[in-house]
Specification:
11 helices, Uridine Diphospho-n-acetylenolpyruvylglucosamine Reductase, domain 3, Uridine Diphospho-n-acetylenolpyruvylglucosamine Reductase, domain 2, alpha+beta, 288 residues, 5-stranded antiparallel beta sheet, Enolase-like, domain 1, 3 domains
Length: 288
């Protein structure tokens, strides 16, 4: 690796001031699990890294509201999110998804903010958080703004964040009667990068689907909601014929891509099958 400056600010404000909106070689670093790999392989050569490890402790931890909503500080390690009882109680799909996200060594270091800011379409949490209707709070020189996770990603490894903006908090609204499911399809080990990720959130009773949010990732250039498939599901009664219609709509709508994890044709078929499986599993869990 080439030499670079390492800055260690003690406040969020100082960290933002150290970032350069016009210089892509200046980056913030939280857990650094992805950034270090990019540096070692020569994909990224920084002139300055701004470490966030010493900023205020208030940006780490999980708080649950009386209604079941969650606020998660951006510097919270993924392993802590996975183990927190309020997450398991109010949004169990998040804890379930984390169990197969890489390995425990990575989850002990990687942070929720860094996970989202990296913009990797293979990440497990973005589709889950989109299905749950989550949003992030972002801080920059002009103050704070809120961005739905659904609108955070702009393309392959791209987000809408300015270079001098930082994610400071993730908010997951109360899910109430909604039930969610995340299915991860890998070609090798369960903790590997997915060939397809499917997250759904369903408002339903028994076999009836009142409303559904359907999100796919990994097979696409960014985590993406499928409004056409959602419309096919809305107001339906769960049976094989309905699941085929929803799966066909999802496969037609999803803009799948080729890569080392599978061809576009293979992944389109995965979408067709796994969207229906995720919906069935979510509704089954709502009856338990």
């Amino acid at each position: 690796m080439t030499p670079f400056e390492l800055a260690e600010p003690r406040s969020l404000r100082e960290a933002i001031e150290l970032l350069d909106p016009d210089d892509p070689s200046v980056r913030p670093v939280a857990g650094g699990t992805a950034l270090m790999l990019m540096m070692k392989s020569g994909v990224f050569r920084p002139t300055r890294l701004v470490s966030l490890r010493r900023i205020e402790k208030k940006f780490s931890g999980v708080q649950a509201g009386a209604d079941g909503g969650l606020k998660i500080g951006a510097m919270t390690p993924l392993s802590l999110v996975e183990r927190t009882q309020s997450v398991r109680q109010h949004a169990p799909v998040i804890a379930q998804a984390l169990r197969t996200l890489s390995n425990i060594r990575v989850r002990n270091v990687a942070t929720i903010g860094g996970h989202l800011a990296h913009g990797d379409p293979h990440m497990d949490l973005p589709p889950v958080l989109i299905a749950l209707g989550a949003q992030v709070t972002v801080a920059g020189p002009s103050g704070e703004r809120s961005i739905p996770v659904e609108q955070l990603f702009a393309g392959y490894f791209e987000t809408v964040l300015a270079r001098n903006e930082l994610i400071v908090e993730l908010t997951v609204p109360a899910q109430k009667a909604r039930r969610a499911c995340y299915l991860k399809v890998t070609t090798r080990a369960a903790h590997d990068w997915p060939a397809l990720g499917v997250a759904v959130s369903v408002d339903g009773a028994g076999q009836d689907i009142h409303d559904a949010r359907i999100v796919v990732s990994a097979a696409t250039e960014q985590a993406t909601r499928l409004p056409g498939a959602e419309a096919a599901a809305r107001g339906g009664r769960l049976d094989d014929a309905l699941l085929r219609r929803i799966g066909d709509a999802a496969a037609e709508e999803a803009q799948v891509v080729d890569d080392a994890h599978g061809s576009a044709a293979y992944r389109r078929q995965l979408v067709r099958v796994y969207v229906g499986r995720a919906l069935r599993k979510a509704l089954q869990e709502s009856t338990h």
